[in-house]
Design goal:
Layout: E1 12-16, E2 20-25, E3 35-40, H1 49-58, H2 60-65, E4 68-74, H3 78-85, E5 101-103, H4 108-112, E6 116-122, E7 128-136, E8 138-143, E9 149-155, H5 163-179, E10 181-182, E11 196-197, H6 198-206
Parallel strand pairs: 3-4, 4-5
Antiparallel strand pairs: 1-2, 1-5, 3-8, 6-7, 8-9, 10-11
């Protein structure tokens, strides 16, 4: 689990603005400036993954209003990302996507974030093998402006995310940071509730 820990550092190729490949993309550029919603998905050119890309793109302005950048990542190459980004939505592509798509071809980013869908092992004859699927599960990580992971969730390959819930969680984090008060279950921005301070909640939890 990464919550309360610094988000693992990485430098990797990515496609930005839907059309430009950069070889040294890193989340470090956002430190002290932006929240980051980093999400992992299994594969380009698949059935469910483009629906998530479209959903995040449709809500991108809402994330940006909250000072948050959205970054996608899979184990595909940057060239594969670029081709996928050139294909229209009606043909299964994600043309029009403007947030970065990171290429984790070495699978080290997925592994460091705990979302790689399997693990390395050896067979009975001593040969290296991989158990499971060497692609990313649907991991979602909300990282604050200090580079600390404040929320994470990991779904099976076939279980897509709810982008509105990602926004709600971001709103709750922003409220907590601004007011120092914990938000109750199912809270939404603008909803009134009985206020509970962060300190009181931590004290309650520490008593088991």
């Amino acid at each position: 689990m990464l919550v309360t820990r610094k988000a693992p550092h990485f430098v990797a190729p990515a496609v930005i603005n839907g059309k430009e490949i950069v070889k040294d993309f890193s989340l470090e550029q956002y430190l002290g400036k932006k929240y980051v919603l980093l999400f992992f998905y299994p594969k380009d050119f698949s059935g469910v993954c483009p629906t998530e890309i479209w959903a995040f793109q449709e809500k991108l302005a809402e994330f940006e209003k909250r000072d948050c950048v959205v970054v996608g990542c899979s184990t595909d190459t940057e060239d594969t990302h670029l081709v996928w980004l050139s294909i229209p939505k009606e043909k299964g592509g994600v043309q029009g996507t403007t947030f970065p798509l990171v290429a984790d071809t070495a699978k080290t980013i997925s592994k460091n974030y705990g979302v790689l869908g399997g693990y390395e092992d050896y067979d009975e004859e001593g040969y290296a093998t991989f158990v499971g699927a060497p692609i990313a599960l649907r991991g979602t990580f909300l990282i604050d402006k200090n580079g600390v992971v404040q929320h994470e969730s990991i779904n099976h390959f076939l279980l897509a995310r709810n982008v509105d819930e990602c926004l709600r969680t971001l709103d709750a984090l922003i409220y907590l940071e601004k007011h120092g008060e914990a938000c109750p279950a199912n809270w939404h921005e603008g909803q009134s509730f009985t206020k509970v301070s962060r300190e009181a909640m931590l004290e309650y939890l520490s008593k088991g």
